[in-house]
Amino acid sequence: MASPSESKFSFMKRYPLLGPLFGFGFVLLLFEAMIYFRYHTIFLTPDTFGLILTQTVIVATGALGMTLIIVAGGIDLSAGSAVALTGVVAAVILRDGHSSWLALLGALAVGALIGLVNGGIIARFGMMPFIVTLGMMSTARGLAKWVGNNQTVNYNFATTEGINALMNNPNTLYDATVEHFKNAEVNGVMQKVVSHDHDISHGMFNLLGHIMPADPDQAGALLMPLWVPTYGVLMVLALTILMSVVLNRSVFGRHVFALGSNEDTARLCGLQTRWLKVGVYVLGGLFMGLAGVFNLARLNQGDVTAGTGMELDIITAVVIGGASLNGGVGSIWGAVIGALTMTSLRSGCVQMRWPTYIQEIIIGVVIILAVGVDKIRSRGLKG
């Protein structure tokens, strides 16, 4: 007969998302109670939850790539610097007059290159991922400052145009059957011109009209509330579903778990462990590049100091989500829930009006607790 402790860990293994969901719910209820008793206001309003979802996009995107790396038995401390470098590269491309698509491809290429260098060195020379990625963290940050000339990189895009539209909701939605006008300068003369930005079908417009307020300044228009998901949120949701299938239902995913569980056994079973490591780090780098694009869209500028400390949030989110730092265990959905937990924690600290140093102390304690829980969980699952 199994002991109570064995039964408990068997239950956790069968339902791995219960732990991350409990942690997320605990953080929400804790701040809900503290904010209500101190300020007599509600923490989790629809608009606040919409903002949390939008702010989670960057950490969650990085967590998707970090989950693969940690499950494979590695780690990537260069994630925050990679986010900064890829964002600055994309901003420079936009500043020089190129398209958003080229900026996106440039950021993804740089992210993949960082992953290739990390994975190549780790696989070829057998060096510790901690040391290699620690060196890359400094290298990528220095490259970001070099490319950006050690200052923010600005470009000429409105908040709802091009890449910026990924993380910024349009202020107004228009009925596609109604022509609307805006002021624009044509040949040096201000004129009224027809604008068709953010048009939607008449039927959808009428449906949304029941839940969205009318824009008092624009006829035939609705105000966009903050709780409406941005394109970035929808993209991360789609990527989460895709990567969950890849990790849990594909041959590649099974190989990643095998690599993280026991590299020697995986090699004896015929797996090309070196190439698998490289592939995992390249894929992780692609997600860091996409996170850099999302961060660029959020800031509306390339910031060479962006992403400082973000690797801690990303790694903690993955561990909160059920991954083991020893490798071989991890969950895509759990990592995203962990990212939501970290973002909610920071948002709650801001609403409590705690100073930055208090927030840093709390995040540090959460990181230690997450690693401690990982140790306890690993021992329990091993029996």
Outline:
By secondary structure, the chain is mostly helical. The protein contains 14 helices and 5 strands.
N/C terminus separation: 14 Å
Number of DSSP E strands? 5
Order of helices and strands: HHHHHHEEEEHEHHHHHHH
Name the poorly predicted regions: none
Strand order across the biggest sheet?
Answer: 4-1-5
CATH architecture of the largest domain: Orthogonal Bundle
Total count of domains: 2
Assigned CATH class of the largest domain: Mainly Alpha
Radius of gyration: 23 Å
Give the proportion of residues in helices.
55-70%
Assess the beta-strand content as a share of residues: 5-15%
Principal-axes shape call: globular
Number of helices: 14
The average pLDDT score comes to 87
Biggest beta-sheet profile: 3 strands, mixed
Global structural class: mainly alpha
CATH topology of the largest domain: ABC transporter involved in vitamin B12 uptake, BtuC
